[in-house]
Design a protein that fits this description.
Elements: H1 7-14, H2 20-34, E1 41-45, H3 51-58, E2 62-67, H4 70-83, E3 88-91, E4 103-108, H5 119-131, E5 133-144, H6 146-153, E6 157-162, E7 165-174, E8 179-189, E9 195-205, H7 209-219, E10 221-228, E11 241-248
Length: 255
């Protein structure tokens, strides 16, 4: 994954509309529906600034947060010190996961899988998650759909405004690959009243459901369920986000 070096400073302000408590509780309901392992260790993969990690820790999980951005993890650590949680944070590329042991549940939220540039990279992440999962452990992740890339993100420009920051978010869609390149321009208000400009960029790629399910199976998982737009309903043709729940049936000890 690239980008987020500048975005990290403004991430929480610009995603203040996300109800992390509600999202964490939603994941918790999925976990309770399918969990059969006895331990309670949860990996928050691509944890960002740790907002969901904090919620999951509050719900009783022993949380390990992994992200490749030192800037994001620095903010996550500030939240940890403020809350007094026992979350462990590791700075790692999700394509080169290296854990100390196995986990019962892995979650990967907020379209982090879409940041992987190829289905080969997706498979590498899935294989690593399987390797470090308990047998029968769960893997819950969400992805932006082809519909969202083609119809919502597309070649559109969005503006966001929060206290002290204004952001222009410009997308460019490659219709041959369903990859959206995203350029962000930030205008941060200084104490002087002037604005300081900075920028960041990254890209997201949408994958077909059949592609994801194939590499899940090849990596040692069985798909338990897939839900549309943070509900417990099946995805439709205009679903923007699909949430997958999968079980590890072949892990590092049995491959």
């Amino acid at each position: 994954m690239s980008g987020y070096s500048t975005f990290a400073r403004f991430y929480d302000k610009l995603t203040a509309n996300i109800d992390y408590q509600k999202r964490g509780e939603y994941f918790h309901k999925i976990i309770m529906k399918f969990k059969t392992t006895k331990k309670n260790i949860l990996l928050d993969l691509a944890c960002g600034t740790g907002s969901i990690s904090e919620v999951m820790a509050g719900l009783g999980y022993d949380v390990i947060g992994v992200d490749s951005s030192e800037e994001m993890l620095g903010i996550a650590m500030e939240k940890k010190f403020s809350s007094g949680s026992s979350i462990q944070y590791l700075c790692q590329d999700m394509c080169r996961l290296d854990m100390f042991g196995t986990v019962d549940v892995t979650i990967c939220a907020l379209d982090s899988i879409n940041h992987l540039p190829s289905i080969k990279d997706v498979k590498k992440v899935f294989e690593d998650v399987a390797f470090f999962s308990e047998l029968n452990g769960l893997f819950i992740f969400d992805v932006n759909t082809l519909y969202k890339h083609r119809k919502i993100l597309a070649d559109n420009t969005f503006t966001y405004e929060a206290e002290g920051i204004y952001c222009i978010w410009e997308n460019t869609l490659d219709r041959a690959t369903d990859e959206v390149k995203m350029n962000l321009e930030f205008f941060e208000e200084l104490d002087s009243g002037l604005y300081q400009r900075s920028s960041d960029s990254f890209s997201e790629k949408a994958y077909k459901e059949s592609e994801l399910e194939k590499v899940l199976e090849e990596s040692g998982f069985e798909v338990l369920a897939k839900y549309g737009d943070d509900t417990f309903e099946a995805p439709t043709d205009n679903t923007q986000r699909i949430v997958y729940a999968a079980r590890c049936i072949r892990n590092g000890q049995t491959i």
